[in-house]
Amino acid sequence: MQFNVFKDFFNPKFELFLRDLKINEDFLEMLIYTPLAGGKRLRPFIIFSIGKELGIEQEILERVGFAVEIFHSGSLIHDDLPSIDDDRLRRGKKTHHVKFGEDNAILTGDYSMLLPVKILNSLPVNSEISKKIVALWIDCSLNVVLGEYLDVKMNKVPNKELLKDIYILKTAALFKFCFAAPFILKDQKYDEPEKIGTDFGISFQLLDDIKDEISSSEVLGKTPGKDKKQNKLTILKFVSLNEAKKTAKEIYFNSLKRVSILGLKETSQELRSIFDLIEIS
């Protein structure tokens, strides 16, 4: 499936899944606000595209994608809080705490980051595969929180190795899961997909840092220039804008070559074709 049609395929199923959750109606409305506010759906697309090439059942891939998007939305809710990035705009809409209050945002973010374990643990797969995918998920999701901690507490330290650690933990951990999960579901080795996902995630975060510097709020869907205003640690503290763009592009396309070597020709081709979209949107 092409990336430009995936969102229209995924979003109605995602909304139906969310609205079918058996929780308090008021809390549900807060829970679905950020996941349904928009987003490229790149992470579930990667899961779905690789999984379909490996011959995995569509419903299983959808549920794994739902889990990742719910967690990602929870991490964004926390990221935007006044005590962290203090942002008022996300995906072109009011951030969660602006709309619902900081107390509700904290609780909604907590729930969103815990719920995926339940979703993944209930996948209709054998117990060994279930253990592996839940174990990888726990490792990756905990790393996201550790990465956020480093980003908040140590972002003013001019250390390039620390910056790489933040990228690997905060952003690349989820991409690592997305690339590896379909191979676990197929009961295949997933060491190389993990490495590819990590590198892909690093390139994605490099591009995100660049966009924060040069893009508008209309393009980003969030407040631009926040990294510089908050003196955050980004790649642009160490290299020029052109050097950062070159590095991001090299890492991105090198990752796709390795995806192709794994036999995932369609996934590699589609991710190659959407580079410009990821780069500017």
Kindly describe this structure:
This protein has 281 residues and is mainly alpha-helical. It has 14 helices and two strands. The chain has helices at residues 3-19, 25-33, 42-54, 58-79, 96-100, 102-121, 127-153, 160-185, 191-214, 217-220, 226-229, 241-261, 265-273, 275-280; strands spanning 89-90, 93-94. α4 (58-79) runs antiparallel to α6 (102-121) and α8 (160-185) crosses α9 (191-214). The longest helix has 27 residues, at 127-153. The model has no long low-confidence stretch (mean pLDDT 92).
- Apparent shape: globular
Proportion of residues in helical segments: over 70%
Helical segment count:
14
Give the ordered list of helices and strands: HHHHEEHHHHHHHHHH
**Strand-residue fraction?**
under 5%
The low-confidence runs, each spanning 5 or more residues with pLDDT under 50, are: none
Q: Could you tell me the mean pLDDT?
A: 92
Task: Compute the CA-based radius of gyration.
Answer: 18 Å
Strand order of the largest sheet: 1-2
**Largest sheet data:** 2 strands, antiparallel
- Based on helices, strands and strand pairing, what is the structural class? mainly alpha
The rounded distance between the terminal residues' Cα atoms is 21 Å
What labels would you give this structure?
single chain; 1% strand; 281 residues; mainly alpha
Please sum up the structure shown.
The chain has 281 residues and is mainly α. The chain is 74% helix and 1% strand.
